Structures are given as C-alpha cells and as structure tokens.
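Work Package 3 (structural annotation) set out to generate three-dimensional models for the target panel prioritized at the project kickoff. During this period the team completed the workflow that converts sequence records into discrete structure tokens, so that structures can be stored uniformly alongside our sequence database. As a representative example, we reproduce one entry of 120 residues exactly as it appears in the project archive.
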Amino acid sequence: MSKKTLIIGASTDPTRYAFLAANRLLYHGHEIELIGRDQGKIGGNEIHTSKPALERVDTVTMYISPKRQPEYYEYIVGLKPKRVIFNPGTENPEFEALLAKNKIEPLEACTLVMLSTGQY
C-alpha cells in the first residue's frame, strides 16, 4: 500500500541518503513530497524550499540535523502524519516527545533499511 511520504532535507546530490531514499520510495510505489534547501527535481517531483500545504501525509522522514528541526515542529505536527522517521544522525528527544504527545509515532530508524527489509 502506498504511503505518502514527506522527505525533509531532500537533495539532488546522488551521494546523499535523502536522494537515495526518494528514489527508493518511488521505486516501491510510494508518493513523495520533498522539502530541501535548494530547488530541483527528483523523479519528476519538485523540491520545495518552503513548507507547502499538504494533505494525507502518512510518513515524514527526516534528513536534517536536530538543530535545524525546530522550525519544522509546528508544521509537521499540523500535517498529522502517522509517524516521523528519524534517520541516523537526526535523532531529537525533544521533538520525539512533542510528536508522541500529539499521537504521532516517532521512530528512530533508517528509511532505506526499512524499505529493503519490507518494514516500511
């Protein structure tokens, strides 16, 4: 089943994990939305440099450091996703507690591993 996924920290740099995750999500049939520092496209999907109005987001996957996350707290909680995946290096106890308080599952995991093992 397709899970609409928002990637925060998207990049057109093919060496970045966010780029690999975007392509792997598309390969597995998931709809993606992208937010990043720089404009561009991944698999025909536009990278937004601001916070677009989105609906029905199932999963948010983080590829930005904890110090850059606070500007997204309110935005992500407002999207009401089922879960937020904190990929290695993005773990943030403060944000994870806020998500849990809002009945959003915080997951410290790796999107690429979850996809390759069928746990996504």
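The chain has four helices and seven strands.
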